[in-house]
Amino acid sequence: MVHDGIYHAEMPPEDPSKIPHYYGDYVRQLFLAIAAILVVVIPIWKDFLPVNILIEISAIVALVILAGLTNPSKKWTIVFDTVLAALGVVAFETAAVSMWSGTSFFLFGMREVVSLLFLFALYFSIKTLRSMPLDV
User: What is the 3-state secondary structure (H, E, C) of 31-87?
Assistant: First the structure.
């Protein structure tokens, strides 16, 4: 919209601070924290997850993209946040438990930290999702 020759962006139809049970901001922060941890840890321990390095890097990119897309007026972003968080919990907890005996305690601890961050992201995504009508 233009007023006095100056372009002003319209406010989104829904202000996140006024939406009850919207926790997308927490999910965004958790996804960015996980991505930052992975960027630091993966070059040090290439076997952080028992998958190809391309998959690990793609997961980092997916986390950042979803963090940037998370939006209270786009319900599909919350659905994708929920799916990615659930996959993250499963992947990292499985790696932590199954690879426990062959790795250092610190590496086990880092996998557990990432798994817990995904668990919190899953919790906040579900809380947001259940309060929104599912007309995605």
Answer: HHHHHHHHHHHHHHCCCCCCCCHHHHHHHHHHHHHHHHHCCCCCHHHHHHHHHHHHH
Q: Which whole-number Å values give the CA distances from 32 to 65, 118, 131, in the listed order?
A: 10, 11, 24
Interval 25-43: pLDDT, tens: 999 999 999 999 999 999 9
C-alpha–C-alpha distance, residues 46 and 129, integer Å = 34
Of the pLDDT bands very low, low, confident and very high (cuts 50, 70, 90), residue 136 is: very low
C-alpha 81/C-alpha 68 separation (Å) is 11
Report the alpha-carbon distance of residue 66 to residue 50 in Å, rounded: 23
